[in-house]
Amino acid sequence: MSPESEVDLPGDALPGTLPEALRAELVAFRRDLHMHPELGNQEFRTTAAIKARLEKAGLEPRVLAMGTGLVCDIGVPDDTAGDPSGMLALRADIDALPIPDAKADCAYRSTVPDRAHACGHDVHTTAVLGAGLVLADLHRQGRLPRPVRLLFQPAEEVLPGGAADAIDCGVLDGVGRIIAVHCDPRVDAGRIGLRTGAITSACDRLEISLDGPGGHTARPHLTTDLVTAVARVVTDVPALVARRVDTRAGLAVTWGRIESGHAPNVIPQHAELSGTVRCLDIHAWRQAPDIVHAAIDEVATLHRAKSEITYVRGVPPVVNDPAVTELLRDAMTVRRGADSVESTEQSLGGEDFSWYLEHVPGAMARLGVRTPGERAVRDLHQGDFDVDEHAITVGVELFTAAALITG
Protein backbone atom coordinates (compact mmCIF):
# COMPACT_ATOMS: atom_id res chain seq x y z
CA MET A 1 0.00 0.00 0.00
CA SER A 2 1.58 3.26 -1.07
CA PRO A 3 1.38 6.48 0.96
CA GLU A 4 -0.86 7.93 -1.74
CA SER A 5 -3.33 5.02 -1.72
CA GLU A 6 -6.84 5.60 -0.49
CA VAL A 7 -7.56 4.17 2.93
CA ASP A 8 -11.05 2.75 3.45
CA LEU A 9 -12.56 1.97 6.81
CA PRO A 10 -15.78 0.02 7.32
CA GLY A 11 -18.24 2.78 8.16
CA ASP A 12 -17.53 4.44 11.50
CA ALA A 13 -15.79 1.34 12.82
CA LEU A 14 -12.78 3.26 14.08
CA PRO A 15 -13.71 5.16 17.24
CA GLY A 16 -12.18 8.56 17.87
CA THR A 17 -10.93 7.58 21.31
CA LEU A 18 -10.99 4.48 23.46
CA PRO A 19 -13.71 4.47 26.10
CA GLU A 20 -12.35 5.86 29.34
CA ALA A 21 -13.30 2.68 31.21
CA LEU A 22 -11.28 0.53 28.81
CA ARG A 23 -8.29 2.86 28.95
CA ALA A 24 -8.32 2.73 32.74
CA GLU A 25 -8.65 -1.05 32.70
CA LEU A 26 -5.70 -1.44 30.33
CA VAL A 27 -3.48 0.81 32.44
CA ALA A 28 -4.37 -1.26 35.49
CA PHE A 29 -3.67 -4.47 33.58
CA ARG A 30 -0.25 -3.20 32.48
CA ARG A 31 0.62 -2.16 36.02
CA ASP A 32 -0.36 -5.59 37.34
CA LEU A 33 1.97 -7.23 34.82
CA HIS A 34 4.68 -4.75 35.74
CA MET A 35 4.39 -5.69 39.40
CA HIS A 36 4.60 -9.42 38.64
CA PRO A 37 7.30 -9.89 35.97
CA GLU A 38 8.16 -13.42 34.87
CA LEU A 39 11.18 -14.66 32.94
CA GLY A 40 11.07 -16.45 29.61
CA ASN A 41 9.18 -19.76 29.59
CA GLN A 42 8.04 -19.06 33.16
CA GLU A 43 5.19 -16.67 32.30
CA PHE A 44 2.42 -18.77 33.87
CA ARG A 45 0.72 -15.97 35.80
CA THR A 46 0.95 -13.62 32.84
CA THR A 47 -0.51 -16.23 30.50
CA ALA A 48 -3.35 -16.93 32.92
CA ALA A 49 -4.18 -13.23 33.27
CA ILE A 50 -4.35 -12.71 29.48
CA LYS A 51 -6.40 -15.88 29.02
CA ALA A 52 -8.90 -14.90 31.70
CA ARG A 53 -9.51 -11.46 30.19
CA LEU A 54 -9.95 -12.81 26.66
CA GLU A 55 -12.37 -15.47 27.88
CA LYS A 56 -14.34 -12.80 29.74
CA ALA A 57 -14.75 -11.09 26.37
CA GLY A 58 -16.23 -14.27 24.91
CA LEU A 59 -13.10 -15.33 23.03
CA GLU A 60 -11.40 -18.72 22.98
CA PRO A 61 -7.65 -18.33 23.59
CA ARG A 62 -5.39 -21.37 23.27
CA VAL A 63 -2.32 -21.78 25.46
CA LEU A 64 0.76 -22.83 23.49
CA ALA A 65 2.17 -26.32 23.88
CA MET A 66 5.13 -24.97 25.89
CA GLY A 67 2.69 -24.10 28.70
CA THR A 68 3.12 -20.33 28.44
CA GLY A 69 2.02 -17.90 25.78
CA LEU A 70 -1.19 -18.16 23.82
CA VAL A 71 -3.01 -17.40 20.57
CA CYS A 72 -6.56 -16.20 20.07
CA ASP A 73 -8.40 -15.84 16.77
CA ILE A 74 -11.06 -13.21 16.14
CA GLY A 75 -13.12 -14.18 13.13
CA VAL A 76 -12.23 -16.94 10.71
CA PRO A 77 -11.97 -16.78 6.93
CA ASP A 78 -15.36 -18.49 6.52
CA ASP A 79 -17.38 -15.88 8.40
CA THR A 80 -15.76 -12.61 7.35
CA ALA A 81 -15.21 -10.87 4.05
CA GLY A 82 -11.72 -12.26 4.37
CA ASP A 83 -8.38 -11.15 3.06
CA PRO A 84 -6.68 -13.05 0.23
CA SER A 85 -3.39 -12.74 2.11
CA GLY A 86 -4.83 -14.56 5.14
CA MET A 87 -5.16 -13.51 8.76
CA LEU A 88 -3.41 -10.48 10.18
CA ALA A 89 -1.46 -11.46 13.31
CA LEU A 90 -0.80 -8.98 16.13
CA ARG A 91 2.20 -10.14 18.13
CA ALA A 92 3.22 -9.26 21.69
CA ASP A 93 6.08 -10.64 23.80
CA ILE A 94 5.23 -11.34 27.42
CA ASP A 95 8.47 -12.07 29.33
CA ALA A 96 10.55 -9.86 31.60
CA LEU A 97 14.26 -9.42 32.32
CA PRO A 98 16.45 -10.77 35.16
CA ILE A 99 17.36 -7.34 36.56
CA PRO A 100 16.11 -5.50 39.67
CA ASP A 101 13.49 -2.78 39.38
CA ALA A 102 15.30 0.41 40.39
CA LYS A 103 12.35 2.81 40.20
CA ALA A 104 11.89 4.71 43.45
CA ASP A 105 8.51 5.81 44.81
CA CYS A 106 6.61 3.92 42.13
CA ALA A 107 3.38 2.29 43.24
CA TYR A 108 3.59 -0.40 40.58
CA ARG A 109 7.29 -1.27 40.75
CA SER A 110 8.18 -4.95 40.57
CA THR A 111 7.33 -7.07 43.60
CA VAL A 112 9.65 -9.86 42.44
CA PRO A 113 13.34 -9.53 43.44
CA ASP A 114 15.74 -9.18 40.51
CA ARG A 115 12.94 -9.23 37.93
CA ALA A 116 11.62 -6.28 35.93
CA HIS A 117 9.70 -5.39 32.80
CA ALA A 118 12.58 -3.18 31.73
CA CYS A 119 11.98 -3.60 27.99
CA GLY A 120 8.30 -2.67 27.78
CA HIS A 121 6.88 -6.11 27.10
CA ASP A 122 4.07 -5.35 29.55
CA VAL A 123 3.09 -2.47 27.27
CA HIS A 124 3.28 -4.61 24.12
CA THR A 125 1.10 -7.25 25.77
CA THR A 126 -1.48 -4.75 26.99
CA ALA A 127 -1.71 -3.03 23.59
CA VAL A 128 -2.41 -6.31 21.78
CA LEU A 129 -4.91 -7.33 24.47
CA GLY A 130 -6.69 -3.98 24.19
CA ALA A 131 -6.80 -4.21 20.40
CA GLY A 132 -8.22 -7.71 20.70
CA LEU A 133 -11.04 -6.51 22.97
CA VAL A 134 -11.95 -3.70 20.55
CA LEU A 135 -11.77 -5.94 17.49
CA ALA A 136 -13.82 -8.68 19.14
CA ASP A 137 -16.60 -6.18 19.78
CA LEU A 138 -16.47 -4.98 16.16
CA HIS A 139 -16.53 -8.57 14.94
CA ARG A 140 -19.71 -9.23 16.91
CA GLN A 141 -21.20 -6.25 15.10
CA GLY A 142 -20.14 -7.68 11.74
CA ARG A 143 -17.69 -4.84 11.16
CA LEU A 144 -14.35 -6.65 11.09
CA PRO A 145 -13.15 -6.88 7.47
CA ARG A 146 -10.54 -9.60 8.02
CA PRO A 147 -9.75 -12.32 10.57
CA VAL A 148 -7.18 -11.39 13.20
CA ARG A 149 -4.94 -13.55 15.35
CA LEU A 150 -3.64 -12.31 18.69
CA LEU A 151 -0.26 -13.85 19.46
CA PHE A 152 1.20 -13.54 22.95
CA GLN A 153 4.68 -15.03 22.70
CA PRO A 154 6.88 -16.20 25.58
CA ALA A 155 10.66 -15.99 25.96
CA GLU A 156 11.64 -13.19 23.61
CA GLU A 157 14.61 -12.37 25.83
CA VAL A 158 15.98 -15.94 25.74
CA LEU A 159 18.23 -16.70 22.76
CA PRO A 160 17.33 -17.87 20.17
CA GLY A 161 13.95 -16.57 21.30
CA GLY A 162 10.53 -18.06 21.90
CA ALA A 163 9.34 -17.18 18.41
CA ALA A 164 10.86 -20.36 16.98
CA ASP A 165 8.95 -22.50 19.48
CA ALA A 166 5.76 -20.57 18.79
CA ILE A 167 6.17 -21.14 15.05
CA ASP A 168 6.63 -24.84 15.71
CA CYS A 169 3.27 -24.71 17.53
CA GLY A 170 1.60 -23.51 14.31
CA VAL A 171 0.94 -19.89 15.27
CA LEU A 172 1.53 -18.79 11.68
CA ASP A 173 -0.88 -21.28 10.12
CA GLY A 174 -3.29 -19.24 8.03
CA VAL A 175 -1.44 -15.97 8.75
CA GLY A 176 -0.69 -13.75 5.77
CA ARG A 177 0.86 -10.76 7.56
CA ILE A 178 2.14 -10.04 11.04
CA ILE A 179 2.77 -6.77 12.87
CA ALA A 180 4.27 -5.77 16.22
CA VAL A 181 5.53 -2.78 18.18
CA HIS A 182 8.53 -2.24 20.40
CA CYS A 183 8.76 0.49 23.02
CA ASP A 184 11.21 3.27 22.12
CA PRO A 185 12.20 5.71 24.90
CA ARG A 186 13.63 8.10 22.29
CA VAL A 187 10.22 8.68 20.68
CA ASP A 188 7.44 10.73 22.27
CA ALA A 189 4.25 9.00 23.33
CA GLY A 190 1.65 9.63 20.67
CA ARG A 191 4.11 8.91 17.87
CA ILE A 192 5.66 5.87 16.20
CA GLY A 193 8.90 5.33 14.33
CA LEU A 194 8.93 3.38 11.06
CA ARG A 195 11.60 2.05 8.75
CA THR A 196 11.36 -0.06 5.63
CA GLY A 197 13.94 -2.85 5.54
CA ALA A 198 16.12 -3.81 8.50
CA ILE A 199 14.99 -2.09 11.71
CA THR A 200 16.97 -4.25 14.17
CA SER A 201 20.18 -6.22 13.91
CA ALA A 202 21.19 -9.84 14.18
CA CYS A 203 22.38 -10.95 17.59
CA ASP A 204 24.24 -14.18 18.40
CA ARG A 205 25.99 -15.36 21.57
CA LEU A 206 29.62 -16.44 21.74
CA GLU A 207 31.31 -18.55 24.42
CA ILE A 208 35.05 -19.36 24.26
CA SER A 209 37.33 -21.52 26.39
CA LEU A 210 41.10 -21.20 26.07
CA ASP A 211 43.46 -23.76 27.62
CA GLY A 212 47.18 -24.23 28.14
CA PRO A 213 49.57 -26.11 30.47
CA GLY A 214 49.96 -23.20 32.89
CA GLY A 215 53.16 -22.27 34.68
CA HIS A 216 55.14 -19.69 36.62
CA THR A 217 54.94 -16.04 35.59
CA ALA A 218 58.75 -15.97 35.82
CA ARG A 219 58.94 -18.32 32.81
CA PRO A 220 56.14 -17.46 30.34
CA HIS A 221 58.37 -18.59 27.44
CA LEU A 222 58.17 -22.19 28.66
CA THR A 223 54.38 -22.41 28.59
CA THR A 224 51.29 -20.85 27.04
CA ASP A 225 50.97 -17.32 28.34
CA LEU A 226 47.23 -17.73 28.60
CA VAL A 227 46.31 -14.31 29.94
CA THR A 228 48.17 -12.67 27.07
CA ALA A 229 46.40 -15.04 24.68
CA VAL A 230 43.05 -14.02 26.13
CA ALA A 231 43.96 -10.36 25.84
CA ARG A 232 44.87 -10.80 22.18
CA VAL A 233 41.62 -12.61 21.47
CA VAL A 234 39.73 -9.77 23.12
CA THR A 235 41.46 -7.07 21.08
CA ASP A 236 42.37 -8.80 17.80
CA VAL A 237 39.30 -10.91 17.02
CA PRO A 238 36.85 -7.98 16.72
CA ALA A 239 39.29 -6.17 14.43
CA LEU A 240 39.86 -9.25 12.25
CA VAL A 241 36.13 -9.96 11.97
CA ALA A 242 35.35 -6.38 11.01
CA ARG A 243 37.89 -6.52 8.18
CA ARG A 244 36.54 -9.72 6.64
CA VAL A 245 33.14 -8.40 5.55
CA ASP A 246 31.93 -5.21 3.93
CA THR A 247 32.15 -2.54 6.65
CA ARG A 248 28.56 -1.52 5.85
CA ALA A 249 27.43 -4.90 7.20
CA GLY A 250 28.31 -3.72 10.71
CA LEU A 251 29.55 -7.12 11.89
CA ALA A 252 30.79 -6.55 15.44
CA VAL A 253 32.07 -8.76 18.27
CA THR A 254 31.71 -7.27 21.76
CA TRP A 255 32.82 -8.96 24.98
CA GLY A 256 30.82 -9.04 28.17
CA ARG A 257 32.76 -11.48 30.37
CA ILE A 258 36.39 -12.56 30.87
CA GLU A 259 37.58 -14.94 33.57
CA SER A 260 41.06 -16.35 34.11
CA GLY A 261 43.50 -17.02 36.93
CA HIS A 262 43.51 -16.67 40.69
CA ALA A 263 47.07 -15.66 41.67
CA PRO A 264 49.36 -12.88 40.41
CA ASN A 265 52.38 -15.16 39.96
CA VAL A 266 50.66 -18.16 38.35
CA ILE A 267 49.95 -18.44 34.63
CA PRO A 268 46.53 -20.11 34.55
CA GLN A 269 45.57 -23.22 32.63
CA HIS A 270 42.07 -22.10 31.70
CA ALA A 271 40.30 -18.93 30.59
CA GLU A 272 36.74 -18.15 29.49
CA LEU A 273 35.28 -15.34 27.44
CA SER A 274 31.72 -14.59 26.38
CA GLY A 275 30.13 -11.89 24.33
CA THR A 276 27.79 -11.11 21.49
CA VAL A 277 28.07 -10.99 17.72
CA ARG A 278 25.86 -8.34 16.12
CA CYS A 279 25.32 -7.61 12.47
CA LEU A 280 23.29 -5.09 10.49
CA ASP A 281 23.12 -7.13 7.29
CA ILE A 282 21.30 -10.45 7.04
CA HIS A 283 23.64 -11.82 4.34
CA ALA A 284 26.77 -11.10 6.39
CA TRP A 285 25.00 -12.60 9.42
CA ARG A 286 24.69 -15.90 7.60
CA GLN A 287 28.50 -15.93 7.11
CA ALA A 288 29.31 -14.74 10.63
CA PRO A 289 29.87 -18.09 12.39
CA ASP A 290 32.57 -19.19 9.93
CA ILE A 291 34.27 -15.78 10.02
CA VAL A 292 34.30 -15.60 13.81
CA HIS A 293 35.49 -19.19 14.24
CA ALA A 294 38.39 -18.62 11.83
CA ALA A 295 39.50 -15.40 13.55
CA ILE A 296 39.49 -16.98 17.02
CA ASP A 297 41.40 -20.05 15.84
CA GLU A 298 44.06 -17.88 14.19
CA VAL A 299 44.72 -15.78 17.27
CA ALA A 300 44.61 -18.70 19.68
CA THR A 301 46.99 -20.78 17.55
CA LEU A 302 49.44 -17.88 17.29
CA HIS A 303 49.68 -17.86 21.09
CA ARG A 304 49.74 -21.67 21.46
CA ALA A 305 46.39 -21.82 23.20
CA LYS A 306 43.80 -24.48 22.57
CA SER A 307 40.36 -23.04 21.86
CA GLU A 308 36.86 -24.39 22.22
CA ILE A 309 34.15 -22.24 20.68
CA THR A 310 30.40 -22.34 21.29
CA TYR A 311 28.57 -20.15 18.80
CA VAL A 312 24.86 -19.84 19.62
CA ARG A 313 22.67 -18.60 16.82
CA GLY A 314 20.39 -15.88 18.11
CA VAL A 315 18.15 -13.93 15.77
CA PRO A 316 18.50 -12.42 12.30
CA PRO A 317 17.61 -8.75 11.72
CA VAL A 318 13.96 -7.75 11.66
CA VAL A 319 13.48 -6.79 8.02
CA ASN A 320 10.27 -4.80 7.58
CA ASP A 321 8.28 -5.63 4.48
CA PRO A 322 7.57 -2.45 2.44
CA ALA A 323 3.83 -3.12 1.99
CA VAL A 324 3.25 -4.00 5.65
CA THR A 325 5.29 -0.98 6.75
CA GLU A 326 2.97 1.20 4.68
CA LEU A 327 -0.02 -0.50 6.29
CA LEU A 328 1.31 0.66 9.68
CA ARG A 329 1.98 4.13 8.29
CA ASP A 330 -1.55 4.38 6.92
CA ALA A 331 -3.05 3.09 10.15
CA MET A 332 -1.21 5.65 12.28
CA THR A 333 -1.97 8.43 9.81
CA VAL A 334 -5.69 7.65 9.91
CA ARG A 335 -5.67 7.63 13.70
CA ARG A 336 -3.33 10.52 14.53
CA GLY A 337 -2.23 12.26 11.34
CA ALA A 338 0.85 12.07 9.17
CA ASP A 339 2.92 14.06 11.69
CA SER A 340 2.60 11.21 14.20
CA VAL A 341 4.95 9.03 12.12
CA GLU A 342 8.70 9.60 12.07
CA SER A 343 11.60 7.79 10.47
CA THR A 344 13.72 5.63 12.75
CA GLU A 345 17.25 4.28 12.52
CA GLN A 346 18.25 0.64 12.46
CA SER A 347 18.94 -0.53 16.00
CA LEU A 348 21.83 -2.77 17.00
CA GLY A 349 19.49 -4.61 19.34
CA GLY A 350 18.12 -8.03 18.44
CA GLU A 351 14.45 -9.09 18.34
CA ASP A 352 13.09 -12.58 17.70
CA PHE A 353 10.13 -11.11 15.79
CA SER A 354 12.55 -11.61 12.90
CA TRP A 355 11.88 -15.37 12.88
CA TYR A 356 8.25 -14.77 11.89
CA LEU A 357 9.42 -12.69 8.95
CA GLU A 358 11.35 -15.67 7.62
CA HIS A 359 7.89 -17.17 6.91
CA VAL A 360 5.42 -14.33 6.30
CA PRO A 361 5.72 -10.62 5.46
CA GLY A 362 5.44 -8.29 8.41
CA ALA A 363 6.71 -5.15 10.09
CA MET A 364 7.56 -3.76 13.51
CA ALA A 365 6.97 -0.16 14.58
CA ARG A 366 8.78 1.77 17.28
CA LEU A 367 6.15 2.80 19.82
CA GLY A 368 6.94 6.11 21.47
CA VAL A 369 6.91 5.93 25.28
CA ARG A 370 8.68 9.16 26.28
CA THR A 371 6.54 11.85 27.89
CA PRO A 372 6.57 14.84 25.49
CA GLY A 373 8.96 17.48 26.77
CA GLU A 374 10.83 15.08 29.07
CA ARG A 375 14.60 15.50 28.79
CA ALA A 376 15.77 12.43 30.66
CA VAL A 377 15.82 9.22 28.65
CA ARG A 378 15.22 5.92 30.41
CA ASP A 379 16.95 3.43 28.19
CA LEU A 380 15.78 -0.11 27.60
CA HIS A 381 17.18 -2.91 29.79
CA GLN A 382 17.81 -0.57 32.70
CA GLY A 383 16.20 -0.93 36.09
CA ASP A 384 14.63 2.53 36.09
CA PHE A 385 12.92 2.09 32.71
CA ASP A 386 9.30 3.23 32.63
CA VAL A 387 6.84 4.56 30.07
CA ASP A 388 4.27 7.24 29.51
CA GLU A 389 1.17 5.06 29.73
CA HIS A 390 -0.56 7.05 26.99
CA ALA A 391 1.51 4.76 24.74
CA ILE A 392 -0.89 1.92 25.57
CA THR A 393 -3.79 3.77 23.96
CA VAL A 394 -1.66 4.60 20.94
CA GLY A 395 -0.65 0.96 20.54
CA VAL A 396 -4.28 -0.18 20.72
CA GLU A 397 -5.29 2.41 18.14
CA LEU A 398 -2.44 1.43 15.80
CA PHE A 399 -3.22 -2.29 15.91
CA THR A 400 -6.97 -1.68 15.60
CA ALA A 401 -6.65 0.65 12.62
CA ALA A 402 -4.27 -1.75 10.84
CA ALA A 403 -6.85 -4.53 11.22
CA LEU A 404 -9.67 -2.34 9.93
CA ILE A 405 -8.02 -0.77 6.92
CA THR A 406 -9.18 -2.19 3.58
CA GLY A 407 -7.86 -1.37 0.16
Can you put this structure into words, describing what you see?
The protein folds into two domains: 20-200 and 317-404, Aminopeptidase (3-Layer(aba) Sandwich), CATH 3.40.630.10; 202-315, Alpha-Beta Plaits (2-Layer Sandwich). It is 30% helix and 24% strand. It has eight helices and 16 strands. Strands 1-2-4-3-5-16-6-15 form an eight-stranded mixed sheet, with helices on one face. Helix 1 runs antiparallel to helix 3 and helix 5 (226-242) runs antiparallel to helix 6 (282-302).
Topology at a glance:
Blueprint: H1 20-35, H2 44-56, E1 62-63, E2 70-74, E3 87-93, H3 121-140, E4 148-153, H4 163-168, E5 175-188, E6 192-194, E7 197-198, E8 202-211, E9 215-216, H5 226-242, E10 252-260, E11 266-267, E12 270-279, H6 282-302, E13 306-315, E14 319-320, H7 322-336, E15 341-343, E16 362-370, H8 390-404
Parallel strand pairs: 3-4, 3-5, 5-16, 6-15
Antiparallel strand pairs: 1-2, 2-4, 6-16, 7-14, 8-12, 8-13, 9-11, 10-12
Helix pairs in contact: 1-3, 3-8, 5-6, 7-8
Key phrases:
407 residues; alpha/beta; Aminopeptidase; Alpha-Beta Plaits; 8-stranded mixed β-sheet; 4-stranded antiparallel β-sheet; 8 helices; 30% helix
Succession of helices and strands:
HHEEEHEHEEEEEHEEEHEEHEEH
Strand order of the largest sheet: 1-2-4-3-5-16-6-15
- CATH architecture designation of the largest domain: 3-Layer(aba) Sandwich
- Tell me the quaternary state: single chain
CATH class type of the largest domain: Alpha Beta
- Which segments are poorly predicted (pLDDT under 50) over 5 or more consecutive residues? 1-9
What is the number of independent domains? 2
CATH topology type of the largest domain: Aminopeptidase
Say which CATH homologous superfamily of the largest domain is assigned: Zn peptidases
Hey, roughly how much beta strand do the residues contain? 15-25%
Determine the N-to-C terminus distance.
Answer: 8 Å
Pairing-aware structural class of the strands and helices? alpha/beta
